[in-house]
Each structure stands twice: as structure tokens, then as C-alpha cells.
Amino acid sequence: MPAPLSPATVTLVKATVPALEAHGLTITRRMYERLFANAEIRDLFNQSHHGETGSQPKALAQAVLAYARHIDDLGALSGAVERIAQKHVALNILPEHYPFVADALLAAIQDVLGEAATPEICAAWGEAYWFLAELLIGREATIYRALAGKPGGWNGWRDFTVESVTQESETIRSFVLVPVDGRPVLRHEPGQYLGFLFDLPGHGVLKRNYSISCAPNDRAYRITVKREASPGRPAGIVSNWLHDRAGIGTIVRAAPPAGEFFLDRGTDAPVVLVSGGVGLTPMVSMLETIAATAPERPTWYVHGALNERVQAMAAHTEALTKDGANRHHQVFYAEPGGHGRPDDPSRASGLITADWLAAHTPHERATYYLCGPKPFLAALVNGLLRKGVPAERVRFEFFGPADDLVEEQAQAA
């Protein structure tokens, strides 16, 4: 545990809140410009959250602002610290990388704030940065040790072979991955993801996270990937490569399972798995796990898709729910006429709503797990909170940095 922040530092950091509210995004954009001038450091990051979507600078700006606001009550940030540590482990971030971020952040503060960034302000932020960095380094060291010490565990990057490829819909494919060394794999928590490192011709080193879409086992992982964007656009570089080039025998490199979003298996309370689009991937892992290990647990699988053509794993999820009296299956299709079975009550037109969830699932006692696009989650997370579901029973994950969705949830709470 790092030494406590000095009272003077706490006061000075809190005094910068108005400046961060006005200029935080400019600071973080400038920070990444400086940081990524070093190619080795740039390659540590998932660039789809930077050049492709531009969401990471915004996420970091909000995180820095939250840190400044709560600098005297850091318990309020414990969830964010755990989420960041898990992301860092998936990217294989190590203690020696932290000084580069410190230098870039402090220089960006000076660049953007100019004379307002007095030596005292810079010194306070330097102390505050290293306090948080030491917390993260300590937590990450604990996670690394735990991962390496478990059966099938490892640290860093491990080579996997694509064992099989399944076309799940018009836009989504599944890839079953087995380790090249033939040894067991670490049993993940249902809902966690794998970090991947790709070195693609013409693009260089790229890192991505993909949720594991199968139940825990000691032999293989399955990832289920949507083809993103359209030809000629920068987004979707890796997903398009996987769809177009990866086949049986392709080698990929993965870090151990990570993530703080996973099924609570220590209770038999009802669970509602709610997903939109390719957000079904962690939900399928949870559903398979429940079917195999807790078949009596009341479970609702609720999924939203544009239409049947793009809906993935439909037959699989239906089979997992139909073989248990306590498991329920409901799909919503946003596109009018998006499904071909109008007489099937488990298929409906429209969008999933908090009103529907409150009326058709036991919201007084169920835990909700949600994964999908940002607007989908913003509506449902906030809607469930307004329905009186306690925040600790509304758990969510989406593919990208947790930026304004978290802010919206906090405001709704």
C-alpha cells in the first residue's frame, strides 16, 4: 500500500477539478499524442479505442476527473481500480511502463494549462499519479501471481491454434482455440475475456479483447467475433482479418483470462442475462455454465438482434434453455419483420426495455448481467435502477472503455 497522500496534495488536486472539467479531454488527447510517439509504448495499447473509435481519451479524461473529485475518498473508486487492473493484465502492462505515462500526463497538463500549471500543481499531480500507479501495480502483481499459479495458468502471451471455425450468423463467427503447447488452459470465470496480440502485415502490432463464449474447461477457449465496419474504413481491422484470413491451424497469441464482469456462482438466486448483438458472447458462457453446473437456478436469457440473419447462436441458446424448466429464452428483433416465426411468443418485434424486464423477470430478487452497445446499456442500466433494482444487482460489460455510460449510471443512481 503506498504512503497516504499529503493534505496539501489532496487540496491542490481537488482545486484542479474545474480545469479538468473544462480541459480534461484536451489534456488526455495530448497525453496520448506524446505517449504514442514512442512506438514500443504505443503497441502496448488497444488502438481500436484510440485511432479507430477515439473513445479512450474521453474515458481517461473522465477517470482523471473522477480521481480528482474523490481524491479524499478513494473507496468510491475501488471498482474502477479493479477494472483498470484487469484491463492492464489483459494488455500485459508491467511496472516499467508506468513512468512513460507519468511523463506524458504531466507534460500534457503543462502543455494545455500553461501558466495555470504551477510547479505546485504539477508536483501534486505527480504525487497523485504515483499513488494510484502503486495501487495498480500492486493489484496487477497479485493478479499476475494468481494467474500463473492456477492449473493451466500463465503470464504474458501464449500461442494458440485455431481448432475450428463456425459461422454463427451472416456477420459473426466462432473460433475454438487450443494451446500450441498441448497443455491445459486456465478455467476462466464465465463472462471474462482474453487479450490478444496480433502482428498483421501493413498494420503492425494490434491488441484486442474478445469475450470467451464457452463454459470454463481445461482444454480450449471459444471466442465469437463480429465482422466490424466496412471495407476501406479503419475500424474492424482485426475482426475482418479473423473472418477473412484465420482458419483451422492459424496461430494467435493470447493473454490469460481477465475481467471483473463474471457470473456469481456462489448463489442460487435468479439471474437474468441480457444482451444486444455480439454482446451475447459472455452471456453464452454464463448460460452454458448454469446449464452444466446449476441446472435448477432460475435463469432468463434475453437477447436483442436486428433480425434473424445476424442473430448468432440461436439454436444453441434455445437448446440450453429448453432442456431446463427453470430456464427461459426471449429474443427481440429491432427490424420490423425481422423474424420468421410470428406465432412463437419467445420471439418478439421491438427493443428490450426495462419495463419488459420488470414485468417478466423477478426484478425484486434477480441479478441482471448486461452486455451490448452503449445506447442499449445506457437505457437498460438506468431503466433498471429507476425500477428500484439495487446497483449491486445490475452488472454490465460492453466492448470499449467504460466512459460516459458509467457517468450516466452514477447520475441515475
Give a concise summary:
The protein is α/β, with parallel strands linked by helices.
Report the CATH architecture of the largest domain: Orthogonal Bundle
Strand content: 15-25%
What gap, in angstroms, lies between the N and C termini?
Answer: 30 Å
What's the gyration radius in Å? 22 Å
What is the topology?
Blueprint: H1 7-15, H2 17-35, H3 39-42, H4 55-69, H5 78-91, H6 98-113, H7 119-149, E1 158-167, E2 172-179, E3 193-200, E4 204-211, E5 221-226, H8 237-245, E6 251-254, E7 271-276, H9 280-293, E8 299-305, H10 314-322, E9 327-333, E10 347-349, H11 354-360, E11 367-371, H12 374-386, E12 394-397, H13 404-412
Parallel strand pairs: 7-8, 7-11, 8-9, 9-10, 11-12
Antiparallel strand pairs: 1-2, 1-6, 2-5, 3-4, 3-6
Helix pairs in contact: 1-7, 2-4, 2-6, 5-7, 6-7, 11-12, 12-13
Features:
single chain, 413 residues, alpha/beta, Globin-like, Elongation Factor Tu (Ef-tu), domain 3, Rossmann fold, 3 domains, six-stranded antiparallel beta sheet, six-stranded parallel beta sheet, 13 helices, 41% helix, globular, disordered C terminus
